[in-house]
Amino acid sequence: MTLAMDPDRKDFLLKMYGSCWDNVTRAEDSLWKVFAAYTALFAGLGLTIEHIGTFGFLFIMTIFSFAGIVSSLIANSWFVRNMGIISNIEKEFLKFDADEVIPKSWTLGKVPFLNVENWWTIVALFSAILIAIHVVLLSTVSEADLPKQILLDVFGGIFVGFYWIVLQRNHDKFINSAPGKTIS
């Protein structure tokens, strides 16, 4: 059932609704492009490992794994923000009944930063690849290069953790300052 509203407001909300969905699509597309580039990098480095050495391979893949995790977190942040806006716009247009299309979990309140969307699967995938290449290759790294790799791992982990906290705080600020509605 559609609710009555001012035509200018309706036009504005419909344009914003479309823009928010475009943002969600763009975030998904960019993340898959990052993953495709990561896969190509893995394959390319695998072919050149004799020239760059095990440490070179591990070093570059570690940097790009952390970059992939950060990209996934950023995409999740945009996704959650835009889904919150989309959800609020839909609430303006629809009277919610039990048979509505919008998932019930989206109608119970604001969307949490930690959720069950595909971004977290990608974070887990980048993390699993990072761990796997360490398990397989770390024992073959020279003693001279091992401290460099450990330093990169520690700083990379700290950076990703710090960035995660920053994104979580930004999300919390957005949630607390966004007026939005919840459905009773």
From TrEMBL:
TM regions (residue ranges): 31-49, 56-79, 119-138, 150-167
Entry keyword set: Membrane, Transmembrane, Transmembrane helix
Name the UniProt record assigns to this protein: Uncharacterized protein
Organism: Candidatus Nitrosarchaeum limnium BG20
Taxonomic placement: Archaea, Nitrososphaerota, Nitrososphaeria, Nitrosopumilales, Nitrosopumilaceae
